[in-house]
């Protein structure tokens, strides 16, 4: 019997066109008919999955269908990475998915919209937190809600069974505040009905990284014991500014599980461009992915993923531009201030020792035009002023 080498594979799931889009003020909402064009730019990042919308929403079915018929049938050149090292390049398109409630008509609408894609997915969800269930499903017991979820997965699996490369994702909304014993039963029931991906959101951004690490460790165990090929997914909101850190905890928990049991663990990060999303937003794709480029030197489990970092700045500016917004100057990874130095001490250090003296990564790696810019100001020194003014 072959011994499996411990490893972790990470898929990147972009929900800018669903979670991000639904959160935009009216004046910033993406113009009708533009989702295919926006999805194309997102696809150039090399993300694994694009959630193009909520097809049961009036007008969204046509938009998601257009994405599936265009971006969903195209191939994109994507870099492959292992522990921060470039390993090669592949040509593939992203999975196209749409979100649906555990309502059969929603699931049918989603499948009709995404099925033309070469790689298609139905993403269905149900709330499992006790307060959510009381508010959303009055009169229904937790057992009935569990059954709603498992039946929805079975229906989605059957509906998509003739597609050569279809998957079904199940989300337990508000999983992080759900009773653990109940959540375990819901997750295992969904997997038994054929769910390929299990998503456990911190829907209202209430948890912290240490808590999430312990939570993900439990979920990984539940999923791996039921179907070791299933994917465990993180979807975190930023209400306390912890969405990126909470998402990274899934990677850390998966690496520890892979090392401990000598297995491969498949995980997924659900993110958006510059953190677009409800309230304070979702986990921002750029800092989340940047964390993958700093592997744990003590881990024996390699981490692999696919992404095109050099496209990051352009995609960030382009997608935010479609919403009439600018990338915040201090946005992690892609903001303009990542490479800008206005302090004399900082400019002097960078001019003498290079960008790494005061920058944790090479900005050009992520698509910035240069690795350092010096600007004049009240705190700038002589050397920095000379550099800012093109002298010396």
Entry summary:
With 392 residues, the protein is α/β, with parallel strands linked by helices.
Record keyword descriptors for this entry:
13 strands, alpha/beta, TIM Barrel, 8-stranded parallel β-barrel, two-stranded parallel ribbon, 392 residues, 13 helices
Protein model, in words:
This protein folds into two domains: 7-322, TIM Barrel (Alpha-Beta Barrel), CATH 3.20.20; 336-388, no CATH class. It starts with 6 loop residues before the first strand and ends with a helix. It has 13 helices and 13 strands. It is of the alpha/beta class and 392 residues long. The strands form two sheets. It has an eight-stranded parallel beta barrel with strand order 1-2-5-6-7-8-9-10, surrounded by nine helices. A two-stranded parallel ribbon has the order 12-13.
Describe the protein's topology.
Elements: E1 7-14, H1 16-23, H2 35-43, E2 49-51, H3 60-69, E3 76-82, E4 85-92, E5 95-101, H4 104-114, E6 120-127, H5 130-136, H6 142-159, E7 166-173, H7 180-192, E8 197-199, H8 209-226, E9 231-235, H9 243-261, E10 264-271, H10 285-290, E11 303-306, H11 312-322, E12 340-341, H12 344-353, E13 373-374, H13 382-388
Parallel strand pairs: 1-2, 1-10, 1-11, 2-5, 5-6, 6-7, 7-8, 8-9, 9-10, 12-13
Antiparallel strand pairs: 3-4, 3-11
Helix pairs in contact: 2-3, 3-4, 4-6, 6-7, 7-8, 8-9, 12-13
């Amino acid at each position: 019997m072959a011994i499996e080498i411990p490893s972790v594979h990470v898929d990147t799931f972009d929900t800018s066109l669903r979670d991000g889009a639904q959160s935009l003020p009216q004046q910033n909402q993406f113009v009708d008919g533009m989702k295919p064009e926006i999805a194309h730019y997102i696809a150039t990042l090399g993300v694994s999955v694009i959630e193009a919308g909520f097809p049961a929403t009036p007008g969204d079915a046509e938009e998601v269908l257009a994405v599936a018929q265009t971006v969903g049938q195209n191939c994109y050149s994507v870099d492959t990475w292992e522990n921060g090292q470039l390993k090669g390049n592949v040509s593939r398109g992203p999975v196209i998915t749409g979100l649906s409630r555990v309502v059969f008509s929603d699931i049918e609408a989603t499948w009709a919209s995404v099925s033309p894609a070469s790689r298609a997915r139905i993403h269905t969800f149900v709330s499992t937190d006790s307060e959510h269930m009381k508010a959303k499903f009055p009169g229904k017991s937790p057992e009935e809600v569990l059954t709603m979820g498992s039946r929805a997965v079975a229906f989605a699996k059957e509906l998509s069974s003739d597609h050569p490369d279809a998957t079904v994702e199940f989300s337990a909304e508000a999983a992080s505040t759900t009773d653990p014993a109940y959540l375990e039963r819901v997750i295992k029931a969904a997997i038994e009905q054929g769910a390929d991906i299990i998503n456990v959101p911190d829907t209202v951004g209430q948890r912290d990284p240490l808590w999430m690490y312990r939570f993900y460790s439990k979920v990984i165990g539940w999923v791996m014991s039921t179907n070791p090929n299933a994917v465990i997914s993180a979807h975190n909101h930023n209400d306390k500014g912890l969405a990126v850190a909470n998402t990274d905890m899934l990677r850390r928990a998966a690496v520890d599980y892979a090392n401990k049991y000598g297995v491969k663990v498949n995980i997924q990060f659900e993110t958006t461009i510059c953190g677009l999303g409800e309230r304070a937003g979702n986990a921002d794709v750029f800092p989340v992915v940047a964390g993958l480029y700093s592997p744990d030197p003590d881990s024996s489990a390699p981490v692999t993923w696919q992404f095109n970092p050099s496209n990051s700045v352009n995609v960030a500016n382009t997608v935010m531009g479609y919403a009439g917004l600018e990338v915040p100057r201090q946005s992690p990874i892609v903001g303009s201030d990542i490479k800008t130095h206005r302090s004399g001490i900082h400019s002097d250090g960078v001019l003498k020792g290079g960008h790494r003296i005061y920058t944790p990564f090479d900005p050009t790696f992520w698509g910035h035009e240069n690795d350092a810019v010096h600007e004049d100001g009240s705190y700038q020194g002589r050397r920095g002023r000379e550099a800012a003014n093109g002298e010396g």
